Amino acid sequence: MRQSKRNMNALAYAILILGALLILFPLYITVITTFKTSGESANSFFTLPQSLYFGNYQEVLKNPTLGYAYRNTIYITFLSLLLELVVMPPMSFALSRGMYHGSKVFKGLYFFFLLGIFLPFQVRMMPLVKLLSALNMMNPTGMVLLYLAHATCESMFLYVGYLASISPSLEEAAYIDGATTAQTFYRIIFPLMRPILATVMIREGLAIWNDYMLPLLCLNRSNTMWTLTLFQYNFQSEFNVDYNLAFSCLVLASLPIIVLYCFMQKQIIGGLTNGAVKG
């Protein structure tokens, strides 16, 4: 029995080490390539650079379009998440409690939103883009509304499922004390939603920051409207042989997310675990 347990532990550690190597090796290649000259990369793609060469980063940073890309990406991501945080939780609360009280209208609305999850993105993509074009909003602000519409079905499903686990007796006690529906939601229910709020915000934030297809369709008319993913694509097309510059561009585009996680990892992990046990 003891030998079998040791073998299982050894197998588990071997799988974990293999998984870590599969993740770390591409990161290693990406980072060391940014500090090499083109000649060093041509001689050996996997070895460490002989000395730290910052010319690749200087070349990328000199490109004026990078500033536009950072500005647009931060604007679109931040505003999309803010609007989703303002709109989706109260809508989901109304939907959840309407179904709890047996309303067929709210139940029908819930299943209507649920159908959107089963529609492939490619099916929803073109109607949304056509609508945006008809409204003359093929710009970063239009992209914010597009991402809000795109996230509605999945976010609503996650929020409603989580709210179903919060006992309505908490709200009934608040109503007895004279609280309004808005006061009950924002003072009692909303704080209890921190785990699912963190989950949805992280999920949507990463998806928006890394999205390529929708910016390609809506923002590719002018380089002043590019996001970071469009900048990377066009930059790599321009320098399709120089991997040093392409990887430097990739690192600079990923840096804000990495720095944000380093400074807020306790809050992010705490948001995912806080409130897991509700009184």
Span of the ends, CA to CA? 41 Å
Q: Architecture of the largest domain in CATH? A: Orthogonal Bundle
CATH class of the largest domain: Mainly Alpha
| Structure classification | mainly alpha
One letter per element, helices H and strands E, the order comes to HHHHHHHHHHHHH
Helical region count?
Answer: 13
What would your notes on this structure say?
This protein has 279 residues and is an all-alpha fold. The chain has 2 domains: 52 residues, no CATH class; 158 residues, MetI-like (MetI-like fold, Orthogonal Bundle). The protein is built from 13 helices and no strands. It is globular and about 75 Å long.
Question: What is the secondary structure topology, with strand pairs?
Answer:
Layout: H1 2-34, H2 38-43, H3 55-61, H4 65-100, H5 104-118, H6 121-134, H7 140-163, H8 169-176, H9 181-192, H10 194-210, H11 213-218, H12 228-238, H13 243-273
